[in-house]
Amino acid sequence: MKSSEDGPALSIGDLGARFGLATHVLRHWETMGLLHPARDAGGRRRYGADDLNRVATILILKEAGLGLTTIRSLSATTDRATRHEILRPAAEELRSRIAAARASLELIEGGLNCAYEDVTHCPNYRRRLAERIDARQERNEPMNRPNTAGGKLS
């Protein structure tokens, strides 16, 4: 699919500058099948209005945490069920990261709100330590294995 000729035809440098992207990024996206610029008589890439929309879409989806392969799969389908199949794992991963970030924030805020000079004296800190020790004993896990569970310190 070639770009629309509607609107100004931008060079690769102009398109990159418009979005703050290096030209090699746009070339990479083209090799991945995400962009399909038209070519002028000299073989130079010319980007139109459709390409502006594609680049903006790619940037929005990347900001949402999607990889280029997933973005390519999404752009290749108009089927709702396929779109859901592609996005469902990304949504689950994002929910998991949000839960971990919330737990981390609770932990940090607990430390900030602790009235004790030494945070290790905070009752909730001590409770968390006991819970961690008890939980690892119940599962027979080594004490040095990281745990991503969060919660308040204070």
UniProtKB/TrEMBL annotation:
SMART domains: HTH_MERR. Signal peptide: none annotated. Residues 9-77 form the HTH merR-type domain. InterPro entries: DNA-bd_dom_put_sf, MerR-type_HTH_dom, MerR_fam. Keywords: DNA-binding, Repressor, Transcription, Transcription regulation. It holds the Pfam family MerR_1. This is MerR family transcriptional regulator. It comes from Streptomyces millisiae.
